[in-house]
Design a protein that fits this description.
alpha+beta; 10% strand; 217 residues; rbstp2171; four-stranded antiparallel beta sheet
Length: 217
């Protein structure tokens, strides 16, 4: 198809692919940064997989020769985690480029805890959840904003501070507090359930005292 200016007009498929590549090259695509538990000074970037990439992961898992028992299931689950990680990890300055072509290359550099952490963070990043899906009204967001402003962030400690750091690193592509001592991830093999428990505990620590301080003039 030719546009009115005489240039060839891109098809919808070409537009989708071009736009996706442009966003990834510019670092505007959805991504997250994960510090390796084995070496917190090294941080890798991960992106969500496309459906095509995920099908390749399933093909790899299906090709695994293992018994139909608990041990065999564990092998398949571990293979899936590794194959997802190797496809999700990208070059920070060009998200279109993978760091590793094969899982065995990645495993030569990463420890078990590194794969655990990256896979856990990948699942958190791709979890299907949003304010619109959960039906949260705008009025509740106004209350959340007031509560966050009233919080004494310097008083947070332990799991509450850990959850706050994870929250900030998730919503900020380049964590603003990376230069501060202790702000890089220090967790090892953090599971999704543990992360959820931490977030829940942090939420509970928003005490009634803080809530009342918001309501007070």
């Amino acid at each position: 198809m030719v546009a009115s200016n005489g240039t060839a007009e891109l098809s919808t498929k070409e537009k989708i692919r071009q736009r996706r590549l442009e966003r990834m090259r510019l670092g505007q695509a959805v991504c997250d940064y994960v510090s390796l538990p084995s070496d917190p000074e090294i941080r890798v970037c991960i992106v969500p997989l496309t459906e095509a990439d995920y099908l390749k992961v399933l093909e790899k898992v299906n090709s695994v020769i293992a018994n139909d028992d608990i041990a065999g299931m564990a092998v398949r689950e571990r293979t899936q985690a590794q194959e997802i990680c190797v496809r999700a990890i990208r070059e920070e300055h060009d998200l279109t480029k993978r760091i590793y072509d094969r899982a065995d290359e990645m495993l030569e550099d990463f420890e078990v805890a590194d794969v655990d952490e990256i896979f856990d963070r990948y699942r958190e990043m791709t979890q299907q959840s949003s304010p619109s899906l959960e039906g949260i009204p705008d009025t509740e967001f106004d209350e959340i904003k007031k509560l966050l402003l009233a919080m004494d962030w310097s008083a947070l400690s332990g799991r509450s501070w850990y959850a706050a750091k994870r929250f900030l690193s998730t919503i900020t592509p380049s964590p603003l507090l990376d230069s501060l001592p202790g702000f890089t991830s220090t967790s090892s093999s953090t599971t999704t359930s543990e992360s959820e428990r931490s977030t829940s505990i942090a939420s509970k620590n928003f005490s009634e005292r803080d809530a009342k301080s918001v309501e007070s003039p």
